[in-house]
């Protein structure tokens, strides 16, 4: 059942990308037939699919690399055919020459592959028309993929970034609630569960970091992204500290495990501080786009920055050693949460 759930998640995540590639490939086939008069313009849909199956932030570069490889391969193949003719030896030489020419400026595997295939087709089939026809078919597919990915169906980088941030903050939010419950009940095992909870969110954190890069690429290369560039830049700066929140939450939970395993009694104000900080992170997870969301504090809704700044101002002085360690971790986590609301207090 777990495998089926993961498979369903992967299918759901890839459904839009698959549908977009299928529709664009069909359009490229029909368009190439109309423009080139080919009964089976196979390279137009291939180019479209190759360009659109990557992540949104790299589709434009992938299309350009594909077209660059095809152009180099056709040119090398044409020259080789005119100078040396065709044959098994010429095929090998042309493939190597096409890939070497590409390697002078790029070692992209896609560009190298397309250059080699184009040169092989031109020399191997000994038909100049084959190479140029493939070039035109690939150009049609690549240009159509560029139009779709960069203009017609480019995703919102803001929406992608906020969705990934929301998922990445769920782990720390849940874990902090478990730490607070562990401190109230004196349960070291419950605190250990919190450690595992936040560690289980590492995949979501990795996805967020990847999505942040994708959002930056979309903001720089797509029409829709350029319209959202200012907000994307602001969100990336403000939310960059999510990985620090993950790390600090793990340290706080591990410190709670040590304190509770030793049978120590935790001061009430530290338990209350963890509860308040859990509420603050839950508020951020619910709406990471808000600059200062209200948290459901036990005393009533409070702006997140008030909770984080208040806890960041606390110091571990006058506490027993283990309690002081817990207070220090709470202090650091509060600083990291505060940075998600206001980037001014940089992590030191």
TrEMBL record:
It is a multi-pass membrane protein. The chain crosses the membrane at residues 64-81, 93-126, 132-153. InterPro entries: Memb_transporter_dom. It is found in: Membrane. Residues 287-306 are annotated as: Disordered. Residues 28-148 form the Integral membrane bound transporter domain. Keywords: Membrane, Transmembrane, Transmembrane helix. Its main location: membrane. This is FUSC family protein.
